[in-house]
Write a structure and sequence with these properties.
Blueprint lengths: L6 E7 L4 H11 L5 E8 L5 H8 L4 E3 L8 H13 L5 E4 L8 H6 L4 E5 L11 H7 L4 E8 L9 E8 L6 H24 L3 E4 L2 E4 L2 E2 L4 E4 L1
Parallel strand pairs: 1-2, 1-4, 2-3, 4-5, 7-11
Antiparallel strand pairs: 5-6, 6-7, 8-9, 9-10
This protein binds 5-O-phosphono-beta-D-ribofuranosylamine (GRF).
Length: 217
């Protein structure tokens, strides 16, 4: 019997949700065979929640402001996520650092998109930092989430060149467009079983990936 049951994911967001929207569109276009079981935000005004509601995806807000300790927040988040028993947790602009406790519950099953060519520029303000450092190239990385902030192995990176007249706004908008192109590709590789995470390495078609898959835009 052919198993046609989709893999499932809970997507975590904090903001505008343009990556979430790109993933929803990819699911609708059949480019991504994934069921988005729920979207959870830590910010109740996150625009991404409205995008999910429009598609009748269950949405939940768990505000971090109601928790004094990071671990208490993560326990509440896990409790909600567990209701959906997802195969993956997809971070799409979720602006919180997750505790090792959280990450270990879903080891190797949490993916994130980060707006830099990791390991360059982990953390915030990546576009300005790339300009300030006079980098020629910038971009984004989809990586497995490990306990090290933005430090898990990268699966795919999109590169864009930095123009002389770029500022953080122009550069971030070009990078964001590439984020929308590569996140769905990585997730489709994952759900199809072609891409695996084992022993801190990424395996593509059973071969260890020595460096991230590179897309140039
Ligand atoms: C993206 O740049 C993503 O790389 C970063 O946060 C931003 C989220 O944007 N982690 P959006 O909410 O998906 O529009």
């Amino acid at each position: 019997m052919i198993n046609t049951i989709n893999k499932t994911a809970v997507i975590l967001i904090s903001g505008s949700g343009s990556n979430l929207k790109a993933l929803i569109d990819a699911v609708k276009n059949n480019e991504l065979k994934l069921t988005i079981s729920a979207v959870i935000s830590n910010i109740d005004t996150a625009k991404g929640l409205i995008k999910a509601e429009k598609e009748a995806i269950p949405t939940i807000c768990i505000s971090h402001k109601e928790f004094s300790k990071r671990i208490s927040y993560d326990r509440a988040l896990l409790k909600e996520i567990e209701k959906y028993k997802p195969d993956y947790i997809v971070l799409a602009g979720f602006m919180r650092i997750l505790t090792p406790y959280f990450i270990n519950q879903y080891e190797g099953l949490i993916v994130n998109i980060h707006p830099s060519l990791l390991p360059k520029f982990p953390g915030l303000n990546t576009h300005q930092r790339a300009i300030d450092d006079k980098e020629k190239w910038h971009g984004c990385s989809v990586h497995v989430v490990t306990e090290e902030l933005d430090g898990g192995p990268s699966i795919m990176q999109a590169k864009v060149s930095i123009n002389d007249d770029d500022d953080a706004i122009t550069l971030s908008s070009r990078v964001l467009k590439t984020e929308h192109k590569i996140y769905k590709k990585v997730l489709q590789l994952l759900v199809s079983g072609k891409l695996e995470y084992k022993n801190n390495d990424i395996w593509l078609n059973k071969k260890r990936l020595k460096r991230p898959i590179e897309m140039i835009f």
